[in-house]
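Protocol step 4 of 6.
Sequence for Aldo/keto reductase (Desertifilum tharense IPPAS B-1220) entered exactly as in the expression construct, tag removed. Do not edit the line below.
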Amino acid sequence: MQYRRFGRTELSMPVFSCGGMRYQYKRQDTPRWRIPRDSQQNLEKTIARSLSVGINHIETARGYGTSEIQLGSILPKHQRDRLIVQTKVGPNADPKEFRRNLEKSLANLRLDSIDLLGIHGINTLENLHHTIRPGGCLDIARQLQNQGKIRFIGFSTHGPTDIIIQAIETDQFDYVNLHWYYINQTNWPAIEAAKRHDMGVFIISPSDKGGMLYNPPQRLVELCDPLSPMVFNDLFCLSQPQVHTLSIGAARPTDFDEHLKVLPLLDRADEILPPIVARLAQAACDRLGEDWMKTWDIGLPQHHETPGNVNIPVILGLRNLALAYDLVDFAKSRYNLLGNGGHWFPGQKADCIDELNLRSCLANSPHADIIPSLLKETHELLGDREIKRISQS
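Step 5 output, structure tokens:
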């Protein structure tokens, strides 16, 4: 395993982290005694495998159902100073409710303290306000930090880049969990801001939200050769020293194996990546046109600026991925979450696009004349059954 300094926390962070959203019994709270033995054994074997390969950062959240309580049955058995434990608790307008949730997390984990607390889901200005206002959630977290129950405080986000940067620039946080990978590099300015503030940078879900790379289409496999798409994406992310760790959302002990193949390649990233990146870029231009790929996102409105709350940038971006790389299943999974993702994945689908006048909101786009038809085409390509967030399943 390789390790990187996790910003101003000074923690020695493994370049991979063991995320706790997929190995638990249920995504809803369940009493400990009702958790089946085979589920608990799978979790314990997954954690044992993680630790055996040097992945000592164990990450979970209050919103991950039984994950915390199941970890609480095993983490106290390990040598505490060899673990980096993170949980996350969502902000709340009522700081007393935030405190109750945070204290429940600590009780579930059965540890005297945790290393990292993430304020979970600073996706909106409202949630940022609930967090940083006087007497808000951050003040509550600081109280427990002063009691020695929390070492460092950060935040996780699925929000737009400008809000992430606003949160970073408060200089109130030690680290950030955010999305950034080959197929979605929008948040790079936020990573640069985190570097300026010497914050740790944790990349969320690079293999799932990065394209469902555990089940890649053949076209993507060929374009990433000689690497698998998963190893390529890991190497792409970790080639940037500003990125400190990638989450592996392991459901079973073997889920680490493919990721570990990147470790001997890290020193050769400058040699290995450029031809693959060039091939991917050319493949997108071949199918969608060079002019489109260079200009498609210019002047696009955000969902809250669009009639019907249609999330035009996300929809067109998913169209690009489906057509350029045959990432149709991934694009469908994301597209059909629109309308049901709340502030974690905001905006609506393009199912009613014929009823909307987009002329004004597309005034700054060089493709204003064709975008309505492309949105309609995308809905026909990707529209399917409604999909819920994993934590709602």
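Step 6, annotate. The chain has two domains: 3-268, 289-392.
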